[in-house]
Amino acid sequence: MREITSTPEIVCFGEILWDIFPDGKRIGGAPFNVSYNLTKMGIDSHMISRIGDDQLGRELLEVTTSRKINPTGLQLDNENATGTVIATFDEDNDAIYDIVNNVAWDNIQLTEKDLNFVKEAKAFVFGSLATRNKVSRETLFSLMENATFNVFDINLRPPFIDEKVIKDILHHTHLAKFNKAELRMVLEFIDKEYTNEADSIKYVQDYFKLDEIIVSKGSKGAIYYKKDEHYQFPAVEITINDTVGSGDSFLAGFLTKRINNKNPFETMEYATALGAFITSNKGACPEYSLEEFELFKEKHPTNYNDVITNMKNMPHGK
Ligand SMILES: OC[C@H]1O[C@](O)(CO)[C@@H](O)[C@@H]1O
After folding, report:
1. Longest dimension (CA), the chain
2. What pLDDT does residue 244 have?
3. Would you say 278 and 245 are in contact if contact means Cβ atoms under 8 Å apart?
4. Which residues form a coiled coil (predicted)?
5. What pLDDT was estimated at residue 226?
6. pTM for the full model?
7. In whole angstroms, what is the distance from residue 34 CA to residue 165 CA?
8. Which residues does ligand 1 sit against, CB inside 6 Å?
């Protein structure tokens, strides 16, 4: 396998695993889903995780390699098994996850190479689940303390929620992504009552010195706060296949534009389109080409009448 020597543009950290659905297993893990879709967007992305020395680990390696995800950030664990999750769907077709504990990705070690990659990368992406075990948690903190742009997609997965750890991470975060329930939980952690979204966001921004926050709202779309600016984008209308990884692909689309300093309109438009595209497909990491996505995006344009912003400079002609 070819070693990467140049610094990746984005480094993702955390769980890589098999989601075991009633109809078969699919590769997953929120940070892996982000890394996968970034790669599809043409972004050079590096995934730091750990797999077991077992059949499921070998299968994970095969899939990542065949899908052109660079596997050099995947550590091999001789003691712990490759991660698995028993996934089912509720009556709204939302996924419910039973995440097997004490697996390989709970034991990600700190390496010199990863530390250097994170220092140089334009963004470092992670969630809260990888902090459930001490080893991966300590590695994450060491990396985060050295990164220049920390992107925290909180992705709360009960029962693995630790208030102190989440607050500590938020103090290091530059861009956070919450859904509405997660935003309320963070407010509870800092003893702030929810009055309305804008006030809550302002409070969280000031409390954690955190300029950029995305709140995802499912079928209602998403809103991006950047200091005092906000940009609310509607969800793109599609037929839902399943919602697994929709937030992860949204984030991949968002970062593709954000790290290249595109304006927030273009950034949000791309993010909502990629989230919708993946939701219209099966699973979080379907096989597709950038051209297929671009075609989908053209056929499903953003309804600019439903964009809500406090900024005047909408892109020309919108
Ligand atoms: O990472 C925890 C779980 O979240 C997902 O990534 C979806 O966002 C699943 O693939 C995984 O089982």
Report:
1. 58
2. 85
3. yes
4. none
5. 97
6. 0.95
7. 22
8. 15, 17, 19, 28-30, 33, 85, 97, 129, 157, 244-245, 248, 284
Strand 10-13, strand 83-89: pairing: unpaired
Q: How many residues can be counted in the chain?
A: 318
Rg (C-alpha) for the chain, rounded Å, is 19
Q: Which residues contact 104 (CB under 8 A, 6 or more apart)?
A: 49, 50, 51, 52, 57, 75, 77, 80, 81, 82, 83
Nearest by Cα to 245 from 32, 64, 6, 39:
32
pLDDT at 151 over 70: yes
C-alpha 125/C-alpha 111 separation (Å) is: 17
Alpha-carbon distance of 70 to 8, in angstroms, equals 10
Say what the ipTM of the complex is: 0.93
pLDDT at 314: 66
Counting ligand 1 atoms within 8 A of each CB, the residue from 15, 26, 27, 86 with the most, and so the one to mutate, is 15
pLDDT of the residue at 241: 85
| Residue 4: predicted pLDDT | 53
Task: Indicate which residue's Cα is closest to atom 9 of ligand 1.
Answer: 29
CATH superfamily of 10-297: Ribokinase (3.40.1190.20)
Whole-angstrom distance, CA of residue 246 vs CA of residue 236: 12
150 vs 173: CA distance, rounded Å: 5
Q: For the purposes of burial, counting CB atoms within 10 Å of the CB of 301, is it exposed (0-12), middle (13-18) or buried (19 or more)?
A: exposed
* Structure tokens that stand for 101 in this block: 């504990």
Q: Supply the pLDDT for residue 317.
A: 47
